[in-house]
Amino acid sequence: MIETAAFARLVAYSRARKMSIAMAVTAACAVLLFVVGNESVSVPSLRSIDNLRFPAATLIPLIMAIATTMHTACKSYEIEATWPFKQTSYRVFHLGALIAVNTAALTVLFATRAGYDFPEAVRNYLGNVGIGLLLAICAGGGRSWMLPTAYTIAATLLGRDQHGALAPWAWMIQPARNQTSWAIAIGVFAAAVGLYAVFGPRYEPGSDEV
Questions:
Q1: What is the phi-psi region of residue 161: left when phi exceeds 0, alpha when psi lies from -120 to 50, beta otherwise?
Q2: Digit-coded pLDDT (tens) for 6-39
């Protein structure tokens, strides 16, 4: 009976965060990858006179990361606030399920496509999830898209100097073999997940009416 009640609360917890929509975004990204294929986009560089070309597929890990962190927002905060137990395990399960599905999807999708290594996709997804979770903790899940998007724009436009050398802080555009980029991305991700499990996202007034 207790296990049934716990499972029911877990289902309610996931539904309150529209987990099914996050899964739909993953499916949409899979379709988008096959549509854009190996197309690249030209973007200006603020450090060089030459435009830079990036695979359009580099945006897919960012989109998935944003979908993951935005769906930490809750529309039944007031109800959950009355639960007589900690929500740490529910947060970890919900977030872990989203991350596991998206990581597996990125691995399968990018491993079968040329032009963009799947380790890079996984690293960028996890790193941006970490950045988004930090903002979700401070400002709420609904605003968590802002920081990963701002970082991606900054890394893309400012991450290379006039000689083409990559800045250490721009781990997102580093090649997959760069160990420092992995250390930064995983470090941010691990710290953010730990903080999120303990504190959860900041409550946003009106989010329980969405």
A1: beta
A2: 556 555 555 555 666 666 777 777 777 767 666 6
Nearest Cα to 22, choosing from 94, 80, 87, 91? Answer: 94
DSSP-assigned beta bridge partners for residue 175: none
Measured over the CA atoms of residue 79, residue 18, residue 200 and residue 132, the dihedral's sign is: negative
Q: Which amino acid is at 20?
A: S
The pTM of the full predicted model, rounded to 2 decimals, is 0.81
164: phi > 0 → left, psi -120 to 50 → alpha, else beta; which? left
Query: For the purposes of burial, counting CB atoms within 10 Å of the CB of 105, is it exposed (0-12), middle (13-18) or buried (19 or more)?
Result: buried
Confirm if 179 and 171 have CB atoms less than 8 A apart: no
Pairing of strands 40-43, 52-55: antiparallel
d(CA 173, CA 104): 21
**Which residue in 168, 170, 180, 16 sits closest to 90, CA to CA?**
16
Q: DSSP state, 71?
A: T
- What is d(CA 71, CA 79) in angstroms, rounded to the nearest whole number? 17
- One-character DSSP codes across 108-149: HHHHTSSSS-HHHHHHHHHHHHHHHHHHHHHH-GGGTTHHHH
